[in-house]
Amino acid sequence: MNSLNYDNIKLYDWVHYFHELAQKLAEIGTHSNRDEVIKKIAGNTFGFDSSICTYTPIDPFSIIYFLAQRNTAHQKQVIYSKVKEFLEIKASMPTDWVFPTPTPNTVALFHDGVHFETDLLWRLFIAATKGEELDNSDFIKALSIKTVKTAKLTQTLFLVNPSHYLPADNKTLSLPIFQSVNKTAIFKQIESEGVQIYNNIILRVKDNFPGCKLYEVNYLASNFSSGELKVNNKIYQISSNAYNTGDVIEEFNNENAVWTGGPTSGEEGTYIYPVTEPKIGDVMILRTGNWQVRSINIVLANEYQKDGEWTKNGKIKVLRIAAEDRNMGSNQFTRKEAINKISREKERVIRELYPETFNIIDKLSGKSKSMSEIKNDKVKNLILQGAPGTGKTRLAKQLALFLQTEESSLTEYLTNPDIHNKNEIFNTNPIIDKDERIKIIQFHPSYNYEDFVRGIVTEVKDGKIGYKIENKVFMEIVDAAKDNEPNKYVLIIDEINRANLPSVLGELIYALEYRGESVEGLYKDEELNSKKISIPENLYVIGTMNTADRSIGHIDYAIRRRFIFKYINSDISVINDEKARSLYQRVENLFSNEHLTPDFMKDDVMLGHSYFLNNQNPIKHRLEFEIIPILKEYVKDGILIGQDIIKQIEELRQYV
User: Fold this and answer.
1) How far, CA to CA in Å, does 549 sit from each of 171, 190, 587?
2) Which of 103, 371, 545, 634 has its CA 20 to 30 A from that of 351?
3) Are 595 and 640 in contact (CB under 8 A)?
């Protein structure tokens, strides 16, 4: 978990601030002079020269989202204070800022500056503040506004009424309960079918996080999707009878924390409470009495651990992921166990009580481990280089499938000499067509940036020709990888050196090395309204490179520094047919120092073993129509030299 100082943070206090703000705006929306009043509010809080004041009328969704976008330390203090003062908001200034905060490049307004749906947005807004059923027609029409998509609308609904709504965005859909969901398809379904699909997402969350507030789930999703939340396997329990005077669970819930009333049980054979043991990411069971479980939590911070001992004001900050009372039928707790690490038997009982919760915990810990492994794998960009026929493309596909297995990495492949023998993937024919996490493309001399990253395309709309910017294969797989962490995505670039790489890759040369850091692209993503490009940790790029082809440009040093290069040499051991093995050896003799030009090394040009595998075509046919033609091409290109070289090539026929 991140190292926030929870001493100065009151979790979820933003909820009261935004909800009261929304109530104030909704009241204004019922007045006939609402547009005049709302313009005055926007001007006095954001400034009359701000972009939100450029257009009238101003809708309440734009006010909320525009405010959420003010997320620098200075803006938080100044603008949120102005809003609080101008609207006479009684709720305290937020100290917890974990809620949807659009990036500075995001279009915060709910219009495009030309088309406005102000009345519709006011209707939706007022209904949302009351927690009423949203009108489906209005909901779908709001989603069709050019600058509005599912994530933006539902994030704002969540800010308006955090107890009733939840963002339907990448963070929420990164939760384990949505692991099998196609995010892109869900977004499209919400935009076409409306409220019911959105409500189904909220219902699934409520079912899997029993008793929890939706803003608690959002806190989990935000920290989980960022990789900051690391759930551990240790499980502790603590009693709600902190002072031996009765249940204080309301105090626990209000503080989002648990604690003990003293350092020991105070009984004969005194039991010292292990209050310093629970670590960030551990699971904490809260129970009342010997048999009633009240909530299941994840530890966010342990003040006792910081102090090194029990202290009177110390607390263990927690995040609830289940808050529904359930009763244990057996293997109950004893009084002295005010706090301790639970036994395996008690864990089994509690797992049976909360199967949905522990399913999430197990997947959360798996996600943490998986993303940690991905980030620790330093090899994300690999080029397999070698002569034609050495199986580079086949190996690239095998590596892509290998990366889909647990605890796999390119580092392991490169450093473990036994990997081919231990993993069956490297002994089977790789089929990647049906795996959406793997894409393969082939570069060629006319390939350019606009074909690979992002470019302008023509479109015909209403009989008129227009132009739009469209993401191409690389940005498509980048977006898919970002949307589906911790799944590993692989882009295979066959014949990577056949294109002019500096021209094709452009700013990606930097982004390939510095994962997660943004660089300025050539074209703006129209949906995000940004030129920024960043490559996620879970995207792997595997290229293949034919070292015999010198008719194309070499890979310059700047690009070489971003890739690991591995030679794939020809391997006679995989050739089982005796005639084929004999032919291989005779062909290999042609690449002796006598016949090989000094400009090439043997491993760069020696025909690969795949030319000698007669899986489909007899070796005689392969010799006639594949091996001899390429050898003669080598002669034309000056790779094979010598007065009798053509004669020696022709004589190969007599050996098959």
Assistant:
1) 46, 50, 19
2) 371
3) yes
Here the tokens at position 441 are: 């493309």
Residue among 217, 216, 222, 220 at smallest CA distance from 201: 217
In the block, residue with structure tokens 């067509």: 433
> Token match 């009423």: residue?
132
How many H-runs (helices) and E-runs (strands) does the chain carry? 27, 16
The mean per-residue pLDDT over the stretch 255-273 comes to 84
Average pLDDT, the chain: 90
Partners of 409 in the β-ladder = none
Give the whole-angstrom CA distance, residue 358 versus residue 361: 5
- Range name among 174-178, 418-422, 463-467, 607-611 with the lowest pLDDT average: 418-422
Query: pLDDT value at position 254?
Result: 94
Q: Quick check: 607 and 623 in contact, CB under 8 A? A: no
Is 300 strand, coil or helix?
A: strand
Give the integer Cα–Cα distance in Å for 592 and 488: 43
Sign of CA dihedral 40, 42, 46, 50: negative
Name beta bridge partners: 386: 546
Contacts of 95 (CB under 8 A, 6+ apart): 8, 9, 10, 13
Q: What is the pLDDT of residues 63-110, one digit of tens each?
A: 999 999 998 888 889 999 999 999 999 999 999 999 999 888 888 999
Centre a 10 Å sphere on the Cβ of residue 576 and count the other Cβ atoms it contains: 10
Residue-wise pLDDT tens digits, 540-575: 999 999 988 765 546 778 888 899 999 999 989 889
| 399, 408 Cβ separation under 8 angstroms | no
pLDDT tens per residue, range 354-371: 999 999 998 887 755 566
* Contact indicator for 569, 386 with CB cutoff of 8 Å: yes
Query: DSSP string of 105-125?
Result: TS--SSS-SS---HHHHHHHH
Task: Work out whether strand 381-386 and strand 539-546 pair parallel, antiparallel, or are unpaired.
Answer: parallel
Work out the pLDDT band at 494, boundaries 50, 70, 90: very high
Q: Are 568 and 581 in contact (CB under 8 A)?
A: no
- Report pLDDT digits (tens) over 8-44: 899 999 999 999 999 999 999 999 999 999 999 999 9
Q: What is the pLDDT of residue 267?
A: 64
Q: Which two tokens stand for residue 608?
A: 């690969």
Burial 169-202 (b: 16+ CB within 10 A, else e): bbbbbbbbbbeeeebeebbebbbeebbebbeebb
- For residue 430, say if its preceding peptide bond is cis, omega within 30 degrees of 0: no
The secondary element (H helix, E strand) that includes residue 525 is strand 519-525
DSSP for 581-634, written as a single string: HHHHHHHHHTTSTTTB-TTS-HHHHSPPGGGG--SSS-HHHHIIIIIHHHHHHH
Q: Are 401 and 583 in contact (CB under 8 A)?
A: no
Domains parsed from the chain with CATH numbers: 6-225 (no CATH), 235-373 (3.10.590), 381-567 (3.40.50), 572-655 (no CATH)
**C-alpha span between 152 and 447 (Å, rounded):** 36
| Tens digit of each residue's pLDDT (9 = 90 or more) over 592-605 | 888 998 888 888 89
3-class secondary-structure state, position 317: strand
Q: 203: how many CB neighbours lie within 10 A of its CB? A: 10
Residues 405, 411: Cα–Cα separation, whole Å: 14
Cβ of 435: how many Cβ atoms within 10 Å? 15
